[in-house]
Amino acid sequence: MFIRSERLFLRPGWPEDRDELLALVADESVVRNLARAPWPYTADDARRFLDMPEDRFLPRFLITHPGAAGARLVGCVGLSEKHGEANLGYWIAREYWGQGFAGEATRAVLTLARSIGHKRIVASHFVDNPASGRVLEKAGFTRTGRIVEQFSQGRGMAYPAREYALEFDAPSDCDDDSDNRGVSSARMSAARLSPRRRAA
User: Fold this and answer.
1) Which of 70, 93, 141, 168 could cysteine-pair with 136, CB 3.0–4.6 Å?
2) Nearest-10 crossing angle of helices 130-138, 101-115
3) Strand 120-126 vs strand 85-92: parallel, antiparallel, or unpaired?
């Protein structure tokens, strides 16, 4: 499954992405904001992540930014299962912070999530990472009012995390252009390739 948004191309991870993935995510400032990535992050961790089986109802994508020199890997976004609900997660490599890539990739995945039948998506961020909360709120998430202790492998400890939810039938869903800057007109398309096809 692939998604094209205004500036980004979201695609599955492949084994040959390991070194580039490792170079971007093996950064403590990135890993400390993630729940499931260990620190230090190693080549074996990158390989295990890329080898994880795909789930068409909980898709995950590498975020790439196409350009004249090719498509640069800038981060990752996707859905996972958390307490029986679909949970949105993402990270952006530090050198690409502040360029709006997290918001654009998040909105693309939310549009896909709705199209494949999800009604509610949850998300969270550690309270010392407020920038992630701003991304979620711009994408249409609202605070649940709960702050919970969430374990972070990167920190090696539990840390307070603020919880969010998005109900697709609510007025603030991801198709509301007033809240989400034209998601419905973002020229996004998704295509299934099975079995995986890549250029030789």
Assistant:
1) 141
2) 50
3) parallel
CA distance 141 to 14: 30
pLDDT tens digit at each of 200 positions of the chain: 999 999 999 999 999 999 999 999 999 999 999 999 999 999 999 999 999 999 999 999 999 999 998 999 999 999 999 999 999 999 999 999 999 999 999 999 999 999 999 999 999 999 999 999 999 999 999 999 999 999 999 999 999 999 999 999 744 445 544 444 333 333 333 433 333 333 33
Neighbouring C-beta atoms of residue 178, cutoff 10 Å: 8
Tokens representing residue 62 in the block: 């590498």
SS3 label, residue 195 = coil
| CA 102/CA 14 separation, integer angstroms | 21
Q: Which two structure tokens, joined as six digits, stand for 134? A: 């701003």
Integer angstrom CA distances of residue 45 from 19, 42, 60, 72, 178: 11, 5, 16, 20, 40
Alpha carbon dihedral 133, 135, 139, 142, in 10-degree steps, equals 10
Residue type, 111: T
The CA distance from 33 to 132, in Å, is 9
How far is residue 154's CA from residue 38's CA, in Å, rounded to a whole number? 4
Please name the amino acid found at residue 100: G
Element (H, E) at 51: helix 43-51
Q: Pick from 2, 1, 199, 4: which is nearest to 104 by CA?
A: 4
